[in-house]
Amino acid sequence: MIQFDSMFSAAKPIITLTTDFGLGDPYVGAMKGVILNIAAEATVVDITHLIQSHDIVEAALVLRSSYSFFPPGTIHVIVVDPGVGSCRLPILLATEKYFFVGPDNGVLSPVHRLAQQAEIFHLTATEYFLKPVSNTFHGRDIFSAVAGWLSKGIDPGRLGKRISNLQELKLPLVRKIDENRMIGTILRADRFGNLITNVSVQDLSLPGKDLLPFVVRIADKTIAQLCSSYAEAPPGELFAIWGSLGLLEISVNQGSAAEILQASKAQEFVVELRP
After folding, report:
1. How many CA atoms within 13 Å lie on the side-chain side of 57?
2. Considering just the CA atoms, what is the radius of gyration of the chain in Å?
3. Contact indicator for 240, 216 with CB cutoff of 8 Å
4. All residues at 6 or more sequence positions from 5 whose CB lies less than 8 Å from its CB, including other chains
5. Pairing verdict, β 226-227 and 238-242
6. What is the number of other CB atoms lying within 10 angstroms of the CB of residue 45?
7. Which are the contacts of 6, defined by CB distance < 8 A and separation ≥ 6?
8. Across the chain, where does the E strand assignment appear?
9. In whole angstroms, how far apart are CA 120 and each of 52, 103, 148, 160?
10. How far apart are CA 109 and CA 122, in angstroms?
11. What is the DSSP letter of 67?
12. Which of 14, 12, 77, 9 has its CA nearest to residue 41?
């Protein structure tokens, strides 16, 4: 069992927000207002509110790439919730270092898999919700309110009942064509036009051996250059690079691979091993 008391030692608790709400509506401000009404001493940090609408995969990748840089005890609130008001559960995921509050729609499964210890709670204690609870805004009425109370040291067990599993995110798998070729999929394009894919280092390595040489074939282009930094490639040239998540990215130095290749989420490409 996780010792929650040790996670509440920070004098100034930190709560992060990751949503697909954008910046033009009052939704993010309302969430912050709920949190600060409960926990005026909390520091609220925006990770991003520019996730593509309803894009659970993008939200999960953004969360996975950012959560671990915060101090232990940080509460991460994630609201990319196309199933709001349905039978999907509102949950709290507690790991050995962090808390995650959000919908049980797969968005929390990547951080759950990385945790050494984890406990999951179905949020059912309505006395810690903002009332009345809207069927369209659980981010304000449930997740923000729970995060505020959690930051004040409320034991997670008081917020709901333990459950054994959460929903897994269904990411596309790398598919083998033959022993030398595989099909990868673009998971998202970031604001620089870098194409983040589902191909990992493990997909292109043999146990106990170095990374195998390869080329990427996408659209009508063959990309043979693997760089260790963006500046290593000449400006305007396509190249492959291993991103901070250990996933293969297709990039252009000082340009947009998404625009050059006219590529976007869910597009497939071929990785071919070289002799």
Report:
1. 14
2. 21
3. yes
4. none
5. parallel
6. 14
7. none
8. 14-19, 43-48, 75-79, 90-95, 99-103, 118-123, 160-163, 175-178, 181-189, 195-200, 214-218, 221-223, 226-227, 238-242, 247-252, 268-273
9. 27, 12, 18, 9
10. 15
11. G
12. 12
Q: What sign does the CA torsion over 194, 200, 203, 204 have?
A: positive
Nearest residue to 49 (alpha-carbon basis) of 39, 62, 64, 36: 62
Task: State the Cα–Cα distance between residues 179 and 112, nearest whole angstrom.
Answer: 32
Beta strands 175-178 and 181-189 are antiparallel
The pairing of beta strand 43-48 with beta strand 14-19: parallel
Residue among 97, 75, 70 at smallest CA distance from 31: 75
Per-residue pLDDT at 160: 98
The pLDDT tens digits for 192-246 are 999 999 999 888 876 666 778 899 999 999 999 999 999 999 999 999 999 988 8
H-helix or E-strand spanning residue 34: helix 27-38
| Token pair of 196 as six digits | 């983040």
- Measured distance CA(246)–CA(236) in Å, rounded: 24
Q: Tell me the domains of the chain and their CATH numbers.
A: 4-163 (3.40.50.10790), 175-273 (2.40.30.90)
The yes-or-no verdict on residue 10 having pLDDT over 80 is no
CB atoms within 10 A of CB 167: 18
Classified as helix, coil or strand, 167 is coil
Strand-pair partners of 197:
186
How far, in Å, CA of 75 to CA of 86, rounded? 24
